[in-house]
């Protein structure tokens, strides 16, 4: 993987610096896979998993930290995310980042985990002609009680353990990353958040993966995608929690590589 670099976008009325890292950029004719991290993730928290996927799939890769995460511009102290925060990432931040990196003519594959999976789905819904396919790991498509319960436990842990120190290894501001994510998920109006109706416009291939033991959501999440998106493929992995790429990386890499290779061949 290359040394992280930074792109600047204008968002929420101010310049925002986005931490980016390229994988195998020399593969100029290879498909581009863009990795979107989870609700507390960053480039560093992916570790070497994106590089493994790109090597197996003979692809290029782009990994980035969303605003408020990693080494990207932290969330402003008075910036409170609203119920549409994932829509804004999909509809505003991602297009602006692609433009800043001169990727407007690319049709990437999006590889998203958790909130990143939801953002990937929302992007493909809004811009169906700008994406070749999706691989989503443990995405959220509506809010479940089990999700809220575990996010409440995370709040307690952040206030009473060394979790801020641990997160500080991956983010310039652990508070920015944690409270931006935690407060909106525990905001009462967010309980009604549901993006299922938006899937009707998705036209690209979708592979949805979830652990059977996912502590942040039931299998109704990925099965709900399959009910709406024609041809969506599902992979439900036993002995696997909310992070399939950490719990069962080999299975995820094999499945994702086969999916990208198969559908790449079918793409004109």
TrEMBL record:
<protein>
    <submittedName>
        <fullName>2-succinyl-6-hydroxy-2, 4-cyclohexadiene-1-carboxylate synthase</fullName>
        <ecNumber>4.2.99.20</ecNumber>
    </submittedName>
</protein>
<dbReference type="InterPro" id="IPR000073">
    <property type="entry name" value="AB_hydrolase_1"/>
</dbReference>
<dbReference type="Pfam" id="PF12697">
    <property type="entry name" value="Abhydrolase_6"/>
</dbReference>
<feature type="domain" description="AB hydrolase-1">
    <location>
        <begin position="33"/>
        <end position="253"/>
    </location>
</feature>
<dbReference type="InterPro" id="IPR029058">
    <property type="entry name" value="AB_hydrolase_fold"/>
</dbReference>
<dbReference type="GO" id="GO:0016020">
    <property type="term" value="C:membrane"/>
</dbReference>
<keyword id="KW-0456">Lyase</keyword>
<dbReference type="GO" id="GO:0070205">
    <property type="term" value="F:2-succinyl-6-hydroxy-2,4-cyclohexadiene-1-carboxylate synthase activity"/>
</dbReference>
<dbReference type="InterPro" id="IPR050266">
    <property type="entry name" value="AB_hydrolase_sf"/>
</dbReference>
């Amino acid at each position: 993987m290359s040394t992280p670099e930074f792109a600047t976008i204008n968002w929420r009325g101010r310049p925002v610096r986005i931490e980016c890292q390229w994988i195998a950029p020399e593969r100029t004719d290879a498909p581009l896979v863009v990795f979107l991290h989870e609700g507390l993730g960053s480039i560093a928290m992916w570790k070497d998993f994106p590089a493994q996927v790109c090597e197996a799939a003979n692809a290029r890769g782009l990994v980035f930290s969303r605003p408020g995460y990693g080494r990207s511009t932290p969330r402003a102290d008075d910036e409170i995310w609203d119920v549409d925060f994932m829509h804004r990432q999909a509809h505003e931040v991602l297009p602006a980042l692609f433009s800043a990196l001169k990727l407007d003519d690319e049709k990437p594959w999006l590889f998203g985990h958790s909130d990143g999976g939801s953002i990937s789905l929302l992007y493909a819904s809004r811009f169906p002609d700008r994406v070749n396919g999706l691989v989503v790991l443990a995405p959220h498509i509506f809010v479940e009680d089990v999700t809220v319960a575990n996010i409440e436990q995370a709040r307690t842990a952040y206030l009473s353990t060394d979790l801020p120190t641990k997160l500080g290894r991956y983010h310039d501001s652990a508070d920015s990353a944690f409270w931006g994510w935690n407060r909106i998920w525990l905001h009462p109006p967010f309980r009604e958040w549901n993006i299922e109706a938006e899937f009707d416009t998705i036209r690209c291939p979708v592979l949805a993966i979830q652990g059977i033991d996912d502590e942040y959501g039931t299998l109704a999440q990925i099965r709900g995608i399959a009910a709406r998106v024609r041809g969506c493929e599902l992979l439900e992995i036993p002995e696997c929690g909310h992070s399939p790429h950490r719990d069962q990386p080999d299975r995820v890499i094999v499945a994702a590589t086969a999916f990208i290779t198969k559908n790449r061949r079918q793409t004109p």
